[in-house]
Design a protein that fits this description.
- This protein is an alpha+beta fold.
- It contains 9 helices and 10 strands.
- It folds into 3 domains: about 70 residues, Aspartate Aminotransferase, domain 1, CATH 3.90.1150; about 90 residues, Arc Repressor Mutant, subunit A, CATH 1.10.10; about 55 residues, Herpes Virus-1 (2-Layer Sandwich), CATH 3.30.40.10.
- The strands form 4 sheets. A 3-stranded antiparallel β-sheet has the order 1-3-2.
- The C terminus is likely disordered.
Length: about 250
């Protein structure tokens, strides 16, 4: 496939700039739409090559469309990433300094937890320890809603996790800032927060829940892939990706 940037590539990039992140099915549907709209060759198995062509033109601008996995469901996502800014300062145009401080504190809570989650109560309490202008409870709640809306955090039943977008975009920052706390999944080798942990004290590897489901599927006796100890956790079912994706 040609490495020349064409109108189909530009349309794809424009949509990524608007959405920030799309799941794999959404990216494939968008790829097909862009090729058909501009009457260019469409090869279903060439999505990554198509994106590589875009990335070759984005490189001088320190931008990249990067692929990553959702810790929640195991689906693959594509996100448009600013390579020049690898930390929380990339959000400074949208958030005030005290809002960014609370986001950092929320990241601290999530990364430092055993299950990759932080409760709304813990986040509200951390707001009391801020060094910049303190946020009222209502302001903190509004900020958390904005962070979820902007796809930096995810929320379920009052518990917050780092979103797929956040992990893909801020991976270098996370690995640098939390290098003593962050581990990678034994199976997919991506950063692991929401995961199962081997209970052997000399092992302690982490495996994402979706990776656990896929790795142990069909095995009569689940054993740790690193130390071969019995894997005592409940094995989740493999979740099928949605056939249709919102775009």
């Amino acid at each position: 496939m040609s490495r020349q940037m064409g109108d189909s590539h530009r349309r794809f990039l424009q949509t990524m700039m608007v959405n920030g992140i799309v799941d794999e099915q959404g990216a494939r549907t968008l790829y097909q739409h862009c090729c058909e709209t501009h009457n260019t060759q469409y090869a279903p198995d060439k999505l990554d090559e198509f994106i590589d062509t875009i990335n070759s033109k984005l490189q001088p601008m320190f931008m990249q469309i990067r692929k990553g996995m959702s810790e929640d469901n195991g689906q693959q996502y594509y996100a448009l990433v600013n390579m020049a800014e690898t930390d929380v300062t990339r959000m400074s145009s949208d958030y005030a300094d005290n809002e960014l401080e609370l986001f950092r504190k929320t990241m601290d809570l999530i990364v430092g937890s055993e299950n990759g989650k932080a409760s709304s109560t813990d986040i509200l309490n951390s707001a009391d320890t801020m060094t910049s202008k303190k946020l009222k409870k209502s302001e903190t709640e509004h900020l958390l809603n904005r962070l979820v809306h902007d796809k930096w955090l995810s929320e379920k039943r009052g518990e917050y996790t780092l979103s797929t977008r956040c992990i893909i975009e801020m991976e270098p920052y996370i690995r640098t800032m939390y290098q003593d706390q962050v581990k990678v999944c034994q199976i997919c080798h991506n950063i692991a927060f929401q995961c199962q942990i081997c209970e052997n004290p000399t092992c302690g590897i982490k495996i994402h829940n979706p990776c656990v489901a896929r790795y142990f599927k069909g095995r009569s006796e689940p054993r740790c892939p690193a130390c071969d100890d019995f894997w005592p956790h409940e094995i989740p079912e493999v979740r099928r990706p949605k056939s249709q994706s919102r775009r």
